[in-house]
C-alpha cells in the first residue's frame, strides 16, 4: 500500500536544478505513485493585448503554455525512460499558490512536493509568498524540499505538541507520527519524536514572589516527558528516540534535526489565515527556514481549505 498515490510536483521556472522533481522521482522509485509535473504560467504582456481578438489572445496564451510544456518535457525524459509515470500540467494563472491549491482540489492529489529557495543569512527567516500561502491553504500534505539527501537507514523527526490536552493538537500529533512512520518505513529509517516545551514565564517569576521557577520547570518537563512516552508506546517507538527539550520549537527542532542529521521533519500546521495568521503565525513557518532537511507539513483532519467552493 502506497502512502501517496497521486503526487503534484511544483516546478520552478527560475532554476535549472528541479529539487522537487528529483525528490518526487526518488519517492516514485520507493513506492508506486503517479506524478504530475505542474507549472502555472502567466505573461503580463497578455494584459496589453486588448486590441487583439479573443481568438488571437487565446492563440497567444496557448503558445506560452505549449512552450512551457516542451521545457518540462526535457526534464522528464530521463525519469520517463526509467519507467516513472509522469504527466504534465501547465495552467494559465497569475497567482501560483492559487493554481496549486485549485489543482489539488480539482484532481485530489494527496501530496504536493515543492522545492524551497535558498536564502542568504539575512533572509533566513523570510518565506516566499507562494510557500507561505501553499502551507496555509493546501488541503493535502506539502513536502518542502531542501538539498539534504534521503539515505536509507537515516532519521525522520515527528514534531509533536504532546503536552497539550486540546483535541486538535492530540489529533494532529497522531497524523504527524503516522506520516513520519510511513516515510520512515519507505526509507528504512528511524522515527524520532521531538517535543519542545516552554520555560518559566519571566513575568510570573517576577510578579509572584512565592512562585518557584525550579519546581515549575521540573513539573512542566515531567508532564511533557510522560506525554511523549505515552505517544511513543502507542506507535512502538523506542524511548531512546524521544527528545523532550525546553525552548521554542524553532530553536529545538533545527538543533535536534542537525544533531541527528535527519532527512525530514514532519510537522503539523493548523493553517491560520487572515489577521490571526499575521499576528500569531504558524510554528511550521518559523521552523522551516532553519532546517537543512525536507519538511513535510500536515494539516488537521478537519481542515477546510479557504479556496474550496461551497
Short description:
With about 300 residues, this protein is α/β, with parallel strands linked by helices.
Describe the structure.
The structure is a single chain. The protein is an alpha/beta fold and 310 residues long. It folds into two domains: 1-145, 3-Layer(aba) Sandwich (Rossmann fold), CATH 3.40.50; 148-310, Rossmann fold, CATH 3.40.50.12370. The chain is 43% helix and 18% strand. The protein has a ten-stranded mixed sheet with strand order 3-2-1-4-5-10-9-6-7-8, with helices on both faces. Helix 2 links the parallel strand 2 and strand 3. The longest helix has 28 residues, at 54-81. The model is unreliable at 121-126 and 274-281 (pLDDT under 50).
What summary fits the major beta sheet? 10 strands, mixed
CATH class of the largest domain: Alpha Beta
Which percent range fits the helix content? 40-55%
- Tell me the strand percentage band: 15-25%
Structural descriptors:
10 helices; 310 residues; Rossmann fold; 10-stranded mixed sheet; 43% helix; 2 domains; alpha/beta
Secondary structure elements and pairings:
Elements: E1 6-10, H1 19-30, E2 34-41, H2 54-81, E3 86-92, H3 96-107, E4 111-115, H4 129-137, E5 142-145, E6 155-159, H5 167-186, E7 190-197, H6 202-207, H7 213-234, E8 242-246, H8 249-260, E9 264-268, H9 275-280, H10 283-288, E10 294-298
Parallel strand pairs: 1-2, 1-4, 2-3, 4-5, 6-7, 6-9, 7-8, 9-10
Antiparallel strand pairs: 5-10
